[in-house]
Write the structure tokens for this entry.
Amino acid sequence: QVQLVESGGGFVQPGGSLTLSCVAYGIDSSRYGMAWYRQVSGNQRDLVASTGTDGSTSYHESVKGRFTISRDNAKNAQYLQMNSLKVEDTAVYFCNAYKDDNFWGQGTQVTVSP
């Protein structure tokens, strides 16, 4: 059974930082593209950042220069370092692993508020 387990969400003031972690169970994540999505209640789930099996990365324009995605294949994990957080970054963040299949974590809440 495949599971993606996120952690690291929470409450932070604008300008603060958080690091999200996602550990994959039941798959070899080194064979998967990995990504982070976020969703505000009632809206669609938006791609925030992704990293390919070759280590390449891409980012949504709104987070470029502030967020960094990384992966540790030895730990079957990926991370999202979020700096200079803004109120509009508030959302539920989801870990995603994609190849022929598409797997999702349960989501972790990030709240940015004064």
The mean pLDDT is 97. The chain is about 0% helix and 55% strand.
